Amino acid sequence: MATGAAAVIAKARREIQHEFFSHDAVRADRAIDFDPSRHVQRRVFERWRHAGIIRRESNGRYWLDVVAYDVDLRQRHNRLRIAVLVIVGLLALGIVTGLVNVGRP
Questions:
Q1: What is the pTM for the complete model shown?
Q2: Count of Cβ atoms closer than 10 Å to residue 48 Cβ
Q3: Per-residue model confidence (pLDDT) at position 40
Q4: Cβ distance 18 to 7 under 8 Å?
Q5: pLDDT exceeding 90 applies to what percent of the chain?
Q6: Where are the beta strands (DSSP E) in the chain?
Q7: Other CB atoms closer than 10 Å to residue 24's CB: what's the count?
Q8: What is the number of structural domains in the chain?
Q9: CB 62 within 8 A of CB 55
């Protein structure tokens, strides 16, 4: 279930990112109208607005701040990397201490 939810959120991120990049809406003078079509897109869009990744102009149009987007992407990748390393470390510790049996009946 969690994997499915993560996939839906990742798809919404890609769709929003694609919309802005395909219209070259990466500067204030190239802002576009954007209305998220699905609930999950709305949630990602609002999260990115609050994080400063999506910026709103006075005319109600939006643009994607590439620097903020890159910082957010790197932070998400770092969190994932740390989580994987912790899991691998715990598994290795379990094998070394004998708490985890590998290949023994």
A1: 0.73
A2: 22
A3: 94
A4: no
A5: 72
A6: 54-56, 62-64
A7: 11
A8: 1
A9: yes
